[in-house]
TrEMBL record:
The lineage of its organism: Eukaryota, Viridiplantae, Streptophyta, Embryophyta, Tracheophyta. The keyword Metal-binding does not apply. This is CTLH domain-containing protein. InterPro entries: CTLH_C (IPR006595), LisH (IPR006594), Quinoprotein_ADH-like_sf (IPR011047), Topless_fam (IPR027728), Topless_Znf (IPR048419), TPL_SMU1_LisH-like (IPR054532), TPR1-like_2nd (IPR054080), WD40/YVTN_repeat-like_dom_sf (IPR015943). Residues 1114-1132 have a biased composition (Low complexity). Residues 1107-1132 are annotated as: Disordered.
Amino acid sequence: MSSLSRELVFLILQFLDEEKFRDTVHRLEKESGFYFNMKYFEDSVANGEWDEVEKYLSGFTKVDDNRYSMKIFFEIRKQKYLEALDKNDHGRAVEILRNDLKVFANFNEDLFKEITLLLTLGNFRENEQLSKYGDTKSARAIMLVELKKLIEANPLFRDKLQFPTLKNSRLRTLINQSLNWQHQLCKNPKPNPDIKTLFVDHTCGQPNGARAPSPVTNQLMGTMPKVGGFLPLGAHGPFQAAPAPLNTSLGGWMTNPSSVPHQAISGGPIGVTAPNGSVASMLKRPRTPPSNNPAMDYQTADSELVLKRSRPFGISDEVNNVPVNILPITYPGQSHAHTSHASDDLPKAVVANLNQGSAVKSMDFHPVQQTLLLVGTNIGDIAVWEVGSRERLAFRNFKAWELGACSVALQASLANEYTASVNRVMWSPDGTLFGVAYSKHIVHLYSYHGVDDVRDHLEIDAHVGSVSDLTFSYPNKQLCIITCGEDKAIKVWDAVTGSKLYTFEGHEAPVYSVCSHYKENIQFIFSTAVDGKIKAWLYDSMGSRVDYDAPGRSCTTMAYSADGTRLFSCGTSKDGESYIVEWNESEGSVKRTYHGLGKRSVGVVQFDTTKNHFLAAGDEFRIKFWDMDNVNVLATTEAEGGLPASPCIRFNKEGMLLAVSTSENGVKILSNSEGIRLLRSIEHRGFDASRVASKAPVIGAFGAPSSVAGSSIGFTDRNAPVTAMVPLIGDSRSLPDVKPRMTEELEKSKIWKLTELSEPSQLHSLRLPDSLLSVRIIRLIFTNSGGAILALAYNAVHKLWKWQRNERNLTGKATTSVPPQLWQPSSGILMTNDISETNLEDAVPCFALSKNDSYVMSASGGKISLFNMMTFKTMTTFMPPPPAATYLAFHPQDNNIIAIGMDDSSIQIYNVRVDEVKSKLKGHQKRVTGLAFSNVLNVLVSSGADAQLCVWSTDGWEKQASKYLQIPPGRASTPVGQTRVQFHQNQTHVLVVHETQIAIYEAPKLDCIKQWISWESSGSITDATYSCDSQSIYACFEDGSVCILTATALRLRCRINPSAYLPSTPSSRVYPLVIAAHPTESNQFALGLTDGGVHVLEPLESEGKWGIMPPVENGAGPSANPAAASSDQPSR
């Protein structure tokens, strides 16, 4: 079906809804498959109208379309089955089982058998998994939450959950416009024509009674051009969960490849197959009505006065007054842009001035942290700014990291002039990386770890000459970076390894910009060249699918609206004419051209989009704004003056802030009222060094040599010296005054102080209820779902606490506000490890949890046991001692492979499926006490009681490196002390926990980046772990205290004294032995105590986090020197 016919269906849906034809509306929704009415679906589920629910779903998906669809139908039919059982209607339940649920037996026979067994129970709630099933209403509500998530994730529902934005009674408006047009074409128009039908074209009768033939002969549908679809793009391998539909929105753009072959050289397979079928030819643009009659007044869809303007032409009251709803009626999913947005929503108030020091060329706001701004300049400088505090967090000059590895052409260019301009900066979609495209060959990728922690990641010698643009994409769920350049090529690189995956060639001029996108499971790239040509590419070797001219053959950039549904471009031609347009993707034509851009002599106008509603462009020393649905300028601002002729602009994600470059080498931050509230909230928090690195430029952190060792190590293995986070002495470009509004008194008040919590009222703490024997907790972990805690006690018994989903805890996740249940199956059995012939004092208990929380593998000095987490039954036991297992870790890519640390100092790589030891690794001198896999580096890191670290390749299990910990002078290590390891989220940095210290090492070479020495007065460190976001480290001590450190610099930010969470019992010495971090709540952790208790701790809602980030002082950067490290510890 053509795009215009599709739009007609939406118009009819709106008309039917306004006329209250409810049943017809939903039937058309289902039969067309264009719009899934979530509200109607929810109501039907809540009312238990199961036949209607499945009938409605059938218009959009079938049971076996994909795993999301299968899960949707299964949940619905399971609920229907349970409700029949709950009513003791076993006949109906058997019917549902046979007719509706049996289809799932082909996919999971065990599950079907388990469901069938429910018929044998007097109450299905006797089944452990259904023991918390409530009443019908609450069960349906819980299921609905799950169904909505499945529908939103299902690719078959993509672009079908949002009703297009329409003005009220749009179809009636179009009919009135048509009648008005028909009347204008009359040869003998009457002042008051009598129009009584829509079935034939209107003509006014001639004076003698004869009727002139109507010049308009097409019926309504006939006036719409039939838009042909792009033939199937084929099964693009991993890019599609289901075959692409015949008509895709990209299809209209796809022309036949030109006779000149456009080669795509693959630098490495990405798993994409060539598309099947040929491509449809370019669609013709629809004709516009003839305009040779000056009296004609063709009204557009944007005309607010269409009904009023039709009256003077003499159309009778009967037709002119076709009933139109005056009060707005909102169709489900419909939003009225003209009433819900206004120019007041635009950021126009200047709230900050940032002095960058050189001319700004490109900017980008962080995708998550709304006030974090990345800036690149004309002399190659890049900086990260916190606009809320007006602080520059990080700074770096242009520099080739490994000049010797660069191409000869680049080396020659740099030898001639060692400077380069930044052409583009951009954050990756999740904000963990950012890319910089330079005017000389190079692309730099940096990893961002929060605050001021920016590290070298990749240096790519990408293009010959200037790299014009870059962007990120996720083909095959693999993060890639796309670049284009002066050498007329577009290239795709693996963002992790830097390997080249594709080269697209076909442009005849330097490529100016790239824009990656996906629609209907099709991944593609738009590219534009300086000669005004637009091309589109799929991730294959079939060449360009589009060869099209930008308006005015302009040098153009392209961008989608935030929701990905509308495509815009903006550019400037060689003669200085600028164009900003919206494209009709279905037809490959310009949908609307926006007015108001001036003529310029140099430069290319820059633009941006926000809120799916506004456009902005830097033009004529000001910022101009448009409503996307109106071609005329909505508003302008000069931002208090000082802007260049073509300022660089960038909205933040929410559209509340707008960064604008100035002619004085700075950036102005413009804000709307919502943004002002955000910035004030940041200012009122006080000095938060988690958002501030230093008051001086952090140049040393980014490659400048320094006498103090430190950390700027990225993901890659580099020979560059490790450098410190300190400013260069004598640097002429000192940091400007970036806080002009900060008074001296306010500055003095913002002196950092360690947060120390000693009272129960200063935090939230919950001791988990326990009816079993209280024995000290040796191991502790949250389940991967975050809804339960598993503990292993000294007596080899496991304890499992589960939080239930209810009105007080809607998520069902662990929380201190609601106590969990100490869970046991109805059989009453306990998960107990084998301890026969085991001396518990010598045992080193250990366990590992499967990714789906279904199984736990555990040992307490005896055989290793595999338990079912639902039934607590022992599935199997293996590997009887000696030697005894001391640590367990599942392989990240294969749950059948387990790394087992042994008390004889070996590591055994064991395959559970075949019950076979594949490899035995030897390198430690004492028992192994820690194991951690990196799925990025493909290594296993081990630690032992010998205070040694080893790195093993997971490919051949050979040892790559080893290193002993640096024990502080005068601090003897316990002969059987435990050393544990854990990988950071970046899968490169390793947290090492020893009784004397916490350290950060970098794999695979095991360079010590940072070391934090504990105070002897606090006793030994008993355990430590990363928070789930790897931004903090939680550490517990023998004196009962808990310390929260920054993960970047290992600086103490908060100390929790035992009096804050433990009752006052002077006779007993209670302290935490183990600590575990929640998998999704970064400020929640749990402690396992010597008295057998388990406590969950969270900060107060008013604080939201544990303490305030300490400032990074000069000379106090990360250090590999234990002496230097110990000197920066704050006193306690």
